Amino acid sequence: MAQILKTDARFWAVDRLILAYYAVTTALIVGWWSKVPSAPWLFAWHLSAIALVLFEVKRPNLTSWAFRHWYPLPYVAACYKEMAVLIPAIRHSDADQWLADLDFRIWHVHPTVWLERIQSPALTEFLQFAYTLFVPAVLWVAFLIWRRRKFKEFQYYAFLIALGFLVSYVGYLIVPARGPRFLLRHLQNIPLQGLWLFRGMQTALDRLESAHYDCFPSGHTELTILAWWGSRLVSNRLFRIYFAYTPFLIFATVYLRYHYTVDVLAGACVAGVLILYGPVLYGKLSKGGSAIGWH
Residue 230 and residue 189: Cα distance in Å, rounded? Predict the structure, then answer.
């Protein structure tokens, strides 16, 4: 490991991906400077984040091993948080009504309203719990791959998950929408009620997500499918567990009124495309040699 750290100063696929995304969003901040709240702070953060990656890649040191494997996690999380600032500044309308109309044309009802007929506190509690486990479920696969010291597989999984998140952020920017729990609230006859932890879980998620235009595509659907696919790198048993969990998570996105069904379909389609073509993109972005941990 030490010898690799001394000699490897090449960009990994995930480095190229994240640096490109940060370059584009930095350009957006500059282009809409007067409209983006805290534009100077965001600009400084972007430059600092880019500089740190360049330093860790080009000047391998004792922190490079852990940093280069795990930095996509906080970087991608920061990108999500800034979407709540960038989208209102750049886009001046949302696509909620359009998405709701698409749903209605497909089903001839609003799915979140129709699902009131099967609503129950126990089901609501269960599905909210499944929905809340989204991020831990994605990260648990990464942790298990890392613990097994499968660094080659870990690097690909980190790339695939980062790519999935960043593609969904681009979708949020192109088709900004907040979801049926806001647009269709006046049509809902029965409020969602759980048993014990539902309200606390919902409130915690609202603090993180309610200000975001993060519906299309459904990142929960997309990333959970990618995590299910990636879980096969750990074991067949985990693959089967994620295969059972994924449908509940997808159903929860609509039942809990977070997403339109067209969001879910879009998220599933994006996941399918990334599963099929992610290895091709990974190979192209990895040109120039193997990365730390491939040996």
Answer: 40
For residue 6, pLDDT over 80 is answered with no
Total domain count, the chain = 1
Enclosing domain of residue 101:
2-285
Q: Which DSSP letter does residue 1 get? A: -
Indicate the DSSP class of residue 59.
S
Q: Over the stretch 240-280, which tens digit does the pLDDT of each residue have?
A: 999 999 999 999 999 999 999 999 999 999 999 999 999 99
Q: Please state at what angle helix 121-132 crosses helix 198-209, rounded to 10 degrees.
A: 40
Task: Tell me, yes or no, if the pTM score tops 0.85.
Answer: yes
With respect to residue 292, please indicate whether it lies within any of the assigned structural domains: no
- In degrees, rounded to 5, the angle at the alpha carbon of residue 225 between the alpha carbons of residues 182 and 124 is 45
Tokens of 206: 């609202």
For residue 219, the one-letter residue type is: G
Report yes or no on 291 lying in a domain.
no
